């Protein structure tokens, strides 16, 4: 229960930041950065999963902290890049297909 509450709080904080500063991030080198309104429309139409749904699919430790979320288009598909700070102080970066919530890459730096 505490983990779920904490994750929901992290999601709310990230979503507040995304709303305040726009749903966008760095574009992949071969694509242009989508307008945040495009991402919001894609979410509203059901083309992509919500950030909350994406977070729920990721296997993270309850003490890890969500620190960054970016969304961009690559090869005409939406991609979430979700970064967590682990308890050990390393960054864990998930690259996730936004339409299917499939983890494409899971790297630790």
Rounded mean pLDDT score: 80
Spans of 5+ residues with little confidence (pLDDT < 50)? 18-30
State the helix count: 3
Name of the CATH first level? Alpha Beta
User: Taking strands numbered 1, 2, ... along the chain, how are they ordered across the largest sheet?
Assistant: 1-2-3-4
Oligomer kind:
single chain
CATH fold topology: Nuclear Transport Factor 2, Chain: A
Q: Considering DSSP H and I runs of 4 or more, what fraction of the residues is helical?
A: 25-40%
Number of strands: 4
Task: Give a verbal description of the structure.
By secondary structure, the chain is an alpha+beta fold. It has a single domain, classed as Roll (Nuclear Transport Factor 2, Chain: A), CATH 3.10.450.40. Helix content is about 35%, strand content about 30%. It has helices spanning about 1-20, 35-45, 50-55; strands at about 65-75, 75-85, 90-95, 100-109. The chain has a four-stranded antiparallel β-sheet, covered by helices on one side. A hairpin with a 2-residue loop joins β1 and β2. The model is unreliable at about 20-30 (pLDDT under 50).
Please summarize what this structure is:
The chain has 109 residues and is α+β, with helices and mostly antiparallel strands. Helix content is 34%, strand content 30%.
